[in-house]
Each structure stands twice: as structure tokens, then as C-alpha cells.
Specification:
By secondary structure, this protein is mainly alpha-helical. It is built from eight helices and three strands. Strands 2-1-3 form a three-stranded antiparallel sheet, with helices on one face. The radius of gyration is 37 Å and the shape is elongated. The N and C termini lie far apart (96 Å). The relative contact order is 0.14.
Length: 253
């Protein structure tokens, strides 16, 4: 038996098999539309992917943030001592200035990040956007701190290990104002939280000022064909048509 010859001994398809087959052709019934649960699951997955993408972009933007901070923040002059390095001045202002510049840039970064996410992720405004802005700004602050403090850190550690006692050199910017150590032993929590704080404040203000209850743009009602006169005064009824010539008049009396 060739492949093109139908099998006469094959029985008709069972009812279950008929149900599993999808009819095709001009008269075939359209497929059932996706259910509400399927649509909600698809929208939830897209929201998660959008949130992850937005958080990743904010984290990567922490690199230029750290480079800008390292370029603006001043270095601290130190002097080599037998047990490490000492400040060249009794109360230097450079560490405080480094903390101040990072705090200023961090708060501004958080505000701009919240504004950007509010515009880009307009379909997911609300808790998803707020969490994305806060966590993304927090991660960007950590990245900026690590990138900025490592610029010139290798030279400082080399001089700290090889320079003779009494030699002056400079310590790169860091967020640990008041400490002078080559080992990272303190995490500057207040400064790192400022980007997330700025993002939370800005996103909350945008949500409070939104004109839509759902925080997403909604279509405006079409009021082009309406006017105050048409809304207040009903349209007059049409006058009765005159009788046709030769038509019988209605009885009087």
C-alpha cells in the first residue's frame, strides 16, 4: 500500500480524537480567545521582565555616577607613618566634601531615576515601578561607591606599603569620613541609602499628583459632538407633513 492510498480498514476517528483535532478551512470555527487568567499571567510576566530590565539599567548607570563622583570629590593629603598613614592636617575637610558630593549626586540620581521609570514603565506604574526605582537606585549607589573609590586606590596602597616614613601623598576619595585605613571595614549606610530615598520620594510625589486613579493614562471621553445648548435644550420634534393632494380628509365633528 502506497502512502497516497487511503487505508480502507482504518476505522473512523473516535469522539475524543475529533475533539482534539483543530478544524481548518473556510467554514471552520475560530479558536477560543485566551482566558482572563492567561492574559493576566502574560501581563505579569511582562511586568516582571520590565522591572528587571529597569533595575538592571539603573544599576549599570551607577558606573558613570561613580566616575563623576571620583572626578569631583577631592583627594585627602596624608603622610606616611610607621603604622600606616596620617592626615596631613588635624581636621581635613576633603573626606567631608567627598561624602557631601556623593550625597548630593546620589539624591539627584534617585530623583531622575524615578522620573525616568515613571515615563518609560507607564504600563506598570504603582508598586512595581516603586520597587524597581528604589532597588535600582540602591544598587546604583553601591556600584557608584565601589567604582569611584577604586580610582587611584592601587597607587595609594602601593605608596602606603613602599613609601618611607614622612613622605606626603594623597588618598583617593572614599565615603568613610573620619577613618583612614586601607582595608574596607565600614559600610557607609547613610550615604548609600540616599539614592533610594530620593527615588522613593519622587515616585511617591508623581503618584500623588497623577490625574488618573490607576496612575496610567486613560482615554478622554469624546465630547466633540456635544455642546451646552444641545445638552440643555432638547431637539424640537418634526412638524407633521401636509396631506397629499386628493387624500380623504379626516371626519370632523
Amino acid at each position: 500500500m502506497s502512502p497516497d492510498t487511503p487505508d480502507r480498514e482504518r476505522s473512523a476517528a473516535e469522539p475524543g480524537e475529533r475533539d482534539r483535532t483543530t478544524p481548518t478551512g473556510p467554514g471552520a470555527a475560530p479558536a477560543d480567545p485566551p482566558s482572563d487568567a492567561t492574559a493576566a499571567a502574560g501581563s505579569g510576566r511582562r511586568g516582571v521582565l520590565a522591572a528587571l530590565g529597569g533595575g538592571l539599567v539603573l544599576t549599570v548607570l551607577g558606573v558613570p555616577f561613580g566616575l563623576l563622583w571620583a572626578a569631583v570629590a577631592p583627594e585627602t593629603p596624608v603622610i606616611k607613618a610607621p603604622d600606616g598613614a596620617l592626615y596631613a592636617q588635624p581636621q581635613p575637610e576633603q573626606p567631608i566634601a567627598a561624602d557631601g558630593w556623593f550625597s548630593l549626586f546620589g539624591f539627584g540620581f534617585g530623583v531622575l531615576a524615578a522620573l525616568a521609570l515613571w515615563i518609560v514603565l507607564r504600563r506598570w506604574r504603582g508598586p512595581v515601578g516603586l520597587v524597581t526605582a528604589v532597588l535600582g537606585a540602591l544598587a546604583a549607589g553601591v556600584v557608584a561607591w565601589q567604582v569611584g573609590r577604586r580610582i587611584g586606590l592601587g597607587t595609594f596602597e602601593r605608596l602606603l606599603a613602599t613609601a618611607p616614613d614622612g613622605q606626603p601623598f594623597a588618598k583617593p576619595a572614599d565615603l568613610r569620613a573620619g577613618e583612614l585605613s586601607g582595608v574596607l571595614d565600614v559600610v557607609p549606610v547613610p550615604q548609600l541609602l540616599l539614592p533610594a530615598f530620593g527615588a522613593a520620594i519622587m515616585y511617591t510625589l508623581l503618584a500623588g499628583w497623577s490625574r488618573w486613579p490607576s496612575l496610567r493614562p486613560e482615554p478622554e471621553p469624546d465630547l466633540a459632538g456635544l455642546s451646552w445648548a444641545s445638552a440643555a435644550t432638547p431637539a424640537p420634534s418634526a412638524a407633521p407633513e401636509p396631506p397629499a393632494p386628493g387624500a380623504a380628509e379626516p371626519p370632523r365633528g
